[in-house]
Write a structure and sequence with these properties.
143 residues; 0% strand; mainly alpha
């Protein structure tokens, strides 16, 4: 199934809404407060946060690699003090590197749309048991 750029696999909310929740969590907010801010059920937000926390290290590694692959001069993201925060910082650093290299993209793609595209919609998906069939995945080993 093909997902639009703004979608994540098996999620009803668009990537920007989920990304806003992830950024809020990295800033120290809890799932209930984030749910109120985003007008989403607390259980839904808790699910996003748990899934992302479980993938935080692979997200951090993957998006840090993307940032360096796109622009070798990109400094590594500042440590945020938690694996969750480090992963969010890596997504934002990769977006900065991509938009620095292709400035027109900054107007068209948000950090969380980029994350959805790079992860093929699987940013919050369980770890893949098998390989996806797309052979043109640049960072295939990361997802």
């Amino acid at each position: 199934m093909l997902l639009p750029l703004f979608g994540l696999s098996r999620r009803a909310d668009v990537a920007e809404v989920i990304g806003a929740g992830l950024v809020a969590k990295a800033a120290g907010l809890g799932h209930r407060r984030i749910a109120v801010l985003l007008s989403r059920p607390a259980a839904t937000v808790r699910g996003w946060l748990r899934r992302f926390a479980g993938r935080a290290e692979s997200v951090r590694a993957g998006f840090t690699a993307l940032a360096v692959d796109v622009d070798a001069g990109t400094p590594p993201p500042m440590a945020a003090g938690s694996a969750f925060g480090d992963a969010v910082a890596a997504v934002l650093a990769a977006t900065a590197a991509v938009t620095a290299r292709w400035p027109g993209l900054a107007l068209a793609v948000s950090p969380w749309q980029l994350a959805a595209a790079v992860s093929h919609g699987r940013l919050l998906a369980p770890a893949a048991g098998g390989q996806l069939t797309n052979t043109n995945r640049l960072w295939a080993g990361l997802w």
